């Protein structure tokens, strides 16, 4: 229930790939929290070779997560373009959600530091 509420707040609706998103996020948190021998000896080539599987799995999970969040951003972008400014946002109730706010700020270009899709995905990952 908590993940559904969080996804609705961030994405405006329940994510269609919510099961994959939750599994990927849980797996990534497990891997980040774990201890590896390379953490003790970061300059050791032998320790680096021993932990190649963890690095590979993290890259696979990153690609999955990027695909899901890219899809969410693309759907929001296309809904904003189709509405032609008549609708405030993409949420179920017609209001702006977190993705809409970021896309609007990006389009207006009045930020001191410009943002891109990777910044939006980073915030969505932290909030999810």
Automatic annotation (TrEMBL):
Annotated compartments: Membrane
Domain of life: Eukaryota
Entry keyword set: Heme, Iron, Membrane, Metal-binding, Monooxygenase, Oxidoreductase, Transmembrane, Transmembrane helix
Cofactor: heme
Cited Gene3D superfamilies: Cytochrome P450 (1.10.630.10)
Keyword check for Heme: yes
Signal sequence bounds: none
Membrane topology according to the record: Single-pass membrane protein
GO molecular function: heme binding; iron ion binding; monooxygenase activity; oxidoreductase activity, acting on paired donors, with incorporation or reduction of molecular oxygen
GO cellular component, one term: membrane
Family (UniProt): Belongs to the cytochrome P450 family.
Annotated protein name in UniProt: Uncharacterized protein
Organism: Salvia splendens (Scarlet sage)
